[in-house]
Amino acid sequence: MEFLVASAIGILTAAGLYLVTRLRTFPVILGVSLLTYAVNVFLFASGRLTTQAPPILTDATTYTDPLPQALVLTAIVISFGMTAVIVMIALGAYLGTDDDHVDDVPAKQARKKGDAA
Hints:
Layout: H1 2-20, H2 25-45, H3 66-97, H4 105-116
Helix pairs in contact: 1-2, 2-3
């Protein structure tokens, strides 16, 4: 089970980094979201992967640490807010420039073409 979770974290991280390097707004937003999911799964797995164990301290001999679950819940809420802000900034930039490049290369090229003509 640990190998499966570690593989999922690696795949999510690799896909997120690949999408962030695409330099377009939608893939960057999707890549940041995938990186956020990878971090959330990593935080959740840091509390040990146990099945059918209560998340609080009881008389049971095995239990799940509730701290990583609380951290992941907080991280999920923060990532929703961060994604909403990034989407609004990207939408404003796209509507303002009619371009979805992150690095503004096409806008610079358009200015050079305008100066040359």
